[in-house]
Design goal:
Blueprint: H1 4-12, H2 14-22, H3 32-49, E1 56-57, H4 63-78, E2 83-91, E3 94-104, E4 107-113, H5 121-136, E5 141-149, H6 161-164, E6 165-169, H7 171-193, H8 210-217
Parallel strand pairs: 1-2, 4-5
Antiparallel strand pairs: 2-3, 3-4, 5-6
Helix pairs in contact: 1-2, 5-7
Length: 242
């Protein structure tokens, strides 16, 4: 299976995904600073979820629950849910867990929760992957949005989720990425299936991941010499692969 996190790893560097699937021992544990960011994001999620009054929240705590999550998600929708948080959707070899999916007319709204103060380019790629999965699974998406912290919010007493949470509609940007996303999914699945690691030079790193990938690359053979051109950050480091 190719998950959303797998796909985003592929966008950062194709070899990164291959290592995750075939040589995971080369990946370092999550750094404390990154874990703190994850924790911060989890702390913000309940406020965004409060915007959906009748939300059915799923999720999982172990692998067996993860495996059962697609069936539990479909069951929630069949039982009349209007919004589902942390449901898992799949089609063939692609799968994702979506922060919130809610009904909207004949379609659905896909909401990604981020603890930053704005929607960022990588959120478009993230939501495009989710949209491909959900629509293939039978959930037509009418709108894609990012729920983030309202930078102008000033707390006065109890936190007001309606004021704390800002919503940015990025449907158009996601729509523009759909065909490229389907192509990249096929490329990522080819990487997963390959017995050979893709070309690993750091200049292929994207989405501001040059420094992180360089640390991984230095564990591979042959080593990069100190004055190698491969140590020069690439000018297109914020862009995804073609």
């Amino acid at each position: 299976m190719l998950s959303k996190s797998d796909y985003m790893m592929f966008l950062r560097h194709p070899a990164w995904l291959w290592i995750k699937k075939h040589a995971r021992h080369l990946l370092s544990p999550i750094a404390p600073s990154l874990q703190a960011r994850f924790d911060e994001g989890h702390a913000f999620e309940p406020f965004a979820e409060e915007l959906f009054g009748d939300l059915v929240k799923l999720g999982f705590s172990d692998f067996s629950e993860y495996q059962a999550l697609p069936a539990r998600t479909l069951e929630a929708w069949r039982n009349g849910a209007n919004a589902v948080a942390q449901g898992r959707y799949e089609d063939g070899t692609i799968t994702c867990i979506s922060d919130i999916v809610s009904r909207s007319g004949d379609g659905y709204v896909l909401t990604e929760i981020k603890s930053g103060t704005s929607a960022k380019p990588e959120h478009t790629f993230d939501l495009a992957f989710q949209r491909v999965v959900l629509e293939a699974a039978g959930f037509p998406i009418a709108r894609c949005e990012v729920a983030h912290v309202n930078r102008d919010y000033v707390r006065n007493g109890e936190i007001n989720p309606q004021e704390l949470v800002g919503i940015t509609d990025i449907t158009d940007a996601v729509t523009e990425q759909l065909e490229k996303t389907r192509t990249r999914i096929d490329q990522a699945l080819s990487v997963v299936a390959s017995v050979t690691m893709p070309d690993p030079p750091p200049e292929r790193a994207r989405l501001k991941s040059y420094g992180e990938w360089l640390e991984i690359r230095e564990k591979l053979d042959p080593p990069i010499v100190q004055d190698s051109i491969h140590r020069l950050p690439f000018t297109n480091a914020e862009k995804p692969p073609n």
